[in-house]
Amino acid sequence: MKLYLVHCGFYDPEVCDGIYESHVNLFVTGDSFESAKTRVREIPLFQQRRMHVDGMEEIEAVDGARVHLEPDPAIEGRTLTTSNRHRDL
């Protein structure tokens, strides 16, 4: 199992009448780029916003540390993140 960042584009009709493309990065797991693309297309947000895939990256290592994923039945397939909102404007 590998970690993929999928760069998704979509047009939001509520922002400038949907003329400009917006983007979001979604993380998914898979055994290959093709399986990751299939998994991202199953995400409800991807479907609701009628997104498309603009690009994908397999994340193998970050800052000299290898990424190792372990399945955990206790979280039942959910994605868990910890956010730190920062505004310095």
Provide the gyration radius in Å: 15 Å
Secondary-structure element pattern, one letter each: EEHHEEE
Helix count equals: 2
Apparent shape: globular
| SS content category | alpha+beta
Please mark out the parts with pLDDT under 50 across 5 or more consecutive residues, or reply none: none
Report on the biggest sheet.
3 strands, antiparallel
Strand order, sheet with most strands: 2-1-3
Number of separate strands: 5
- Beta-strand share of residues: 35-45%
Helix content: 10-25%
* Beginning-to-end CA distance, first to last residue: 39 Å
Task: Look at the structure and give the mean pLDDT.
Answer: 93
Features:
89 residues; alpha+beta; three-stranded antiparallel β-sheet; two-stranded antiparallel ribbon; 2 helices; 16% helix; 36% strand; globular
Task: Report on this structure.
This protein is of the alpha+beta class and 89 residues long. Helices cover 16% and strands 36% of the residues. Strand 4 and strand 5 form a beta hairpin.
What would a concise description of this structure say?
This protein is an alpha+beta fold and 89 residues long. Helix content is 16%, strand content 36%.
What's the helix and strand layout?
Layout: E1 2-11, E2 21-30, H1 33-41, H2 44-48, E3 52-59, E4 61-62, E5 65-66
